[in-house]
Write a sequence for this structure.
């Protein structure tokens, strides 16, 4: 957003790759996920850890966060990205942060998050 500012943050090291929502939408979520996976699956790396902040999701579907911002990924986009990332077999862990159950009055945001994770994890499970 044009009205956002950074204070006290440091530039990301060159080794880190970051895509904002605009870049993800421009590339397409699957292409952006594949590019991230390409960066994380180099031979010198044993694997990678997935950190998922719930506030990356669209505010309309994830109101259970402390700092709400319009826009963000849909459930389908989250599931698609996670399926691609998990299909590498290189993920060594996954954590979900920022979700605040006290702000999830009817539980729908938590159920949606659990469903999206189940879809992604289910498709990554060995047969």
């Amino acid at each position: 957003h044009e009205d956002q500012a950074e204070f006290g943050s440091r530039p990301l090291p060159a080794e880190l790759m970051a895509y904002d929502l605009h870049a993800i939408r421009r590339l397409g979520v699957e292409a952006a996920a594949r590019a991230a996976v390409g960066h994380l699956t180099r031979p010198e790396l044993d694997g990678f850890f997935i950190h998922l902040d719930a506030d990356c999701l669209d505010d309309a579907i994830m109101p259970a966060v402390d700092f709400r911002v319009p826009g963000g990924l849909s459930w389908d986009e989250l599931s698609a990205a996670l399926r691609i990332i998990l299909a590498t077999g290189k993920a060594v862990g996954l954590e979900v942060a920022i979700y605040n159950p006290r702000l999830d009055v009817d539980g729908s945001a938590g159920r949606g998050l659990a469903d999206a994770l189940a879809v992604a994890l289910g498709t990554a499970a060995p047969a």
User: Anything to note?
Assistant: Residues 108-124 form the longest helix (17 residues). The chain has a mean pLDDT of 87. The beta strands are 48-53, 91-97.
